[in-house]
Amino acid sequence: MTRLGILLSGRGSNFLAIAHAIHDGRLPDVEIAVVLSNFADAPGLAAARDLGLPAIAVPANGRKRAEHDAEFIAHLLEHQVDLVCLAGYMRLISPAFVRAFPQRILNIHPSLLPAFPGLDAQGQALDYGVAISGCTVHFVDEQLDHGAIILQRSVPVLADDTPETLSARILEQEHLAYAEGIARVLSGRYIFEGRRYRPKHAD
Ligand code: GAR
Questions:
Q1: Ligand 1 pocket, residue 110 CB under 6 Å
Q2: Could you tell me which of 38, 58, 74, 137 has the fewest CB atoms within 10 Å of its CB?
Q3: Domain assignments of the chain as residue spans, ordered by start
Q4: What distance in Å separates the CA atoms of residue 131 and residue 129, rounded to the nearest whole number?
Q5: Catalytic-residue membership of 109
Q6: Domains 1-102 and 106-203 belong to one CATH topology
Q7: Quick one: 186 exposed, middle or buried, by C-beta within 10 A (0-12, 13-18, 19+)?
Q8: To which H or E segment does residue 21 belong?
């Protein structure tokens, strides 16, 4: 059984999409071991409790990032987490956190990286005037929204899109992409050539 640790800061719809994928059998032999948040009142934490999952708040409260992250790492180790999934976790993680789970931290971002990293990716895409945006599932490295890409899904930008309408259509794709990305990683049937993901075919 692969044990996931989820980190979120808000609504938690990507976390719930992962939970549904497990429930549907799209992620066999996977379970959510713990859900962690930097905000005690994150709706995603309440949703985790409703599902009977361990849900723990670790508020930052002005603490240094390394000290805050050490507490996250301790909870993840205590819950024997194999793979960490950032699901709307809106805080940079420290290099020590990345090193504690080498090639074992995933993130989802609402743009086609490397375009529009950081906050409000959907608003950035609209302001830039792109015709196509989307979402990216990627490994987390020590730079913001930068690690090797596992998969992307594209979403056309419509003439009358607002940040809200574009975000909603991208979010639908995020919910499919995250489970698919986790399944790819857990299959182990891939190699990276530099940053390039390559599926490994069975001989
Ligand atoms: C999602 O759109 C996710 O891609 C984004 O925050 C939203 C969280 O929604 N994450 C980032 O922008 C990270 N850079 P959710 O709480 O409903 O999953």
A1: yes
A2: 74
A3: 1-102, 106-203
A4: 7
A5: yes
A6: yes
A7: middle
A8: helix 13-24
pLDDT > 70? residue 42: yes
Centroid of ligand 1 to alpha carbon of 203 (angstroms): 38
Taking the CA of residue 14 as reference, the ligand 1 atom at the shortest distance is 18
For ligand 1, what atom is nearest to the CA of residue 167?
A: 2
pLDDT tens-place string over residues 69-102? 999 999 999 999 999 999 999 999 999 999 999 9
Ligand 1 centre from 142 Cα, in Å? 19
Query: How far apart are the CA of 88 and the centre of ligand 1, in A?
Result: 4
Question: Is 160 exposed, middle or buried, given 0-12, 13-18 or 19+ CB atoms closer than 10 A?
Answer: exposed
**Residue 150 confidence (pLDDT) above 70:** yes
CATH number of the structural domain 1-102: 3.40.50.170
Cα separation, 72 vs 54, whole angstroms: 13
Say which of 109, 138, 146, 175 is annotated catalytic. 109
| pTM of the entire predicted model | 0.97
